[in-house]
Amino acid sequence: MRRQGQVGVALITVMVILLLGIIAVLAAARSGLLNEALVGNDTDYSRTLAAAEALLRDAEIDVRGRLPNGFYCASNPLNTGSEDVQPNFVGCRNAVGGNPWFPNDEIEYQLVANAVAVSPAATPCLQGICVPASLTTLHNPPAFTIENNLPAMAPFGVRYGTFTRTGAPALAGSLATNPILRPPFPVAVDAPNQGWYWVEVFVYKANAMGPRSIGVPPSGGSPFIYRITAVALGQKPGTRAVLKSFFVPNPAT
């Protein structure tokens, strides 16, 4: 019988199938890595946004001077009543030694403004309390902005729980489940997993800041409007969440 020689068709077919399989595997791996990166970025931003929201609420507690359960931030442990505040404290702040606090009237506002005046003119803030000259001093371009000048503003910001956790910021931060809210050691500006808040204090003027711009004006006894800025940095480079809000703790109605 006559023998026919091999022409190698089967080998070529197997090589083509193998090449197509390799391409399919590489495409699947690339798609998986892309999906993982997208999920990682989304998770990091969600965690960062949650931290910024927590900082915003922490700033509101700081302004009110009361914890969510109704107790003062600096309740006097020597007394049984929750309404008793530690000596020299105003709300959550120790109002002696040149420390600023959130004022209760316009006389205290001037005292706080004098305490904050020791800061540079571009950064009229001290311990997270800012007394700017106008609404546009720290925000609208091309003027100075808080979130775009973190190297200059971070030293004047407040970390989570610094004043609202009964004077134990390190302990309070270590108990936080979100790593952004924990105090970093050592503290480094623009390092990942950090967050701060700043509170600007404004005296309400009906002719300059009417109800249309603020919604509900404050009461005459405490005519203050607070603008809160919370900035949180995520674990990944470039992840950042910025939240701003106007806060009126004592509305007129």
Would you kindly provide a written description of the structure presented here, covering whatever features stand out?
The chain has about 250 residues and is α+β, with helices and mostly antiparallel strands. It is about 30% helix and about 15% strand. It is built from five helices and seven strands; from the N terminus they run αββαββααβαββ. It has helices spanning about 10-65, 105-115, 150-155, 170-175, 210-215, and strands spanning about 90, 95, 125, 130, 195-205, 225-235, 240-245. A five-stranded mixed β-sheet has the order 3-4-5-6-7, covered by helices on one side. The chain has a two-stranded antiparallel ribbon with strand order 1-2. Strand 1 and strand 2 (about 95) form a beta hairpin. The longest helix is centred in the first third of the chain and has 56 residues, at about 10-65. It is elongated, with a radius of gyration of 28 Å. The N and C termini lie far apart (about 110 Å). The relative contact order is 0.14.
Write the layout of secondary structure elements.
Elements (H helix, E strand, L loop, with lengths): L8 H56 L24 E2 L2 E2 L11 H11 L8 E2 L2 E2 L19 H4 L15 H6 L19 E10 L7 H4 L9 E10 L6 E8 L6
Parallel strand pairs: 4-5
Antiparallel strand pairs: 1-2, 3-4, 5-6, 6-7
